[in-house]
Write a structure and sequence with these properties.
single chain; 228 residues; alpha+beta
Length: 228
């Protein structure tokens, strides 16, 4: 009989320890919790159920730089022909294909800058327009996959191969309103993007009005190149 009581006591002790592990400790009423205690209790719950965390997230403004917007052909055409740039020199611009064939320059248009003070800045900001139109004018020579150099010349010779071209690299600081102080106008081409194709075929380098090109529904070599 004593053995039975002893075994029963042992089992009761084990059962007591086992059940105590699942007992939820009581907390004082919410009103008795201090603000610091409530924060301690709630923080782990929030962290596990959809709480927002700023760790690892960076803002677009963190680097202090504003991403440059893409220039539009029509806007830069208008600026090129505006009264603000009327007295500025027309500077020919071109691209050349890097590491493929001879170092030939393919001229696709002209840029202007206010007081002729931002030539290199104008080339850099217009790189996309210059390259797009070079591919339009020279589709077999300048491909979309090619690595390019951009350059300009102040020579007046019509033959690009006889001109001295200056490669444009990087400008350390751009004026905040540089886009309003520069303009680009492409040479006439067979697609008629900057002028009627008939002029390009005859070697006529004068441009038609840009609005006239838009009214004809002429687009560029990609769907994104439209007259806007």
């Amino acid at each position: 009989m004593m053995e039975v009581f002893r075994i029963g006591g042992i089992l009761l002790g084990i059962l007591t320890v086992f059940t105590s592990a699942f007992v939820v400790p009581t907390q004082p009423p919410h009103s008795l919790l201090t603000q610091q205690q409530r924060a301690f209790v709630l923080t782990p719950l929030m962290a596990g159920f959809g709480a927002s965390s700023s760790k690892g997230k960076t803002s677009k403004k963190d680097n202090g730089k504003k991403k440059a917007s893409k220039l539009k052909p029509k806007k830069q055409w208008d600026r090129y022909t505006s009264d603000d740039l009327k007295s500025a020199d027309s500077i020919r611009v071109a691209v050349r294909v890097v590491e493929r064939g001879p170092a030939k320059w393919f001229s696709s248009g002209e840029i202007k800058s206010k007081d002729n003070a931002y030539t290199e800045e104008a080339v850099i900001r217009h790189r996309a327009l210059i390259a797009d139109h070079a591919r339009r004018m020279f589709p077999a020579e300048v491909l979309a996959i090619d690595n390019l150099d951009w350059g300009y010349t102040t020579d007046t010779d019509d033959d690009s191969e006889k001109c001295e071209w200056k490669v444009v690299g990087k400008v350390e600081a751009m004026p905040a309103d540089i886009d309003k102080m520069i303009g680009f106008r492409g040479f006439p081409d067979l697609t008629g993007f900057y002028s009627s194709p008939g002029k390009a075929a005859t070697g006529d380098t004068t441009q038609d009005g840009y609005s006239n090109m838009k009214s004809k529904g002429i687009t560029g070599i990609t769907k994104l190149e439209v007259h806007i």
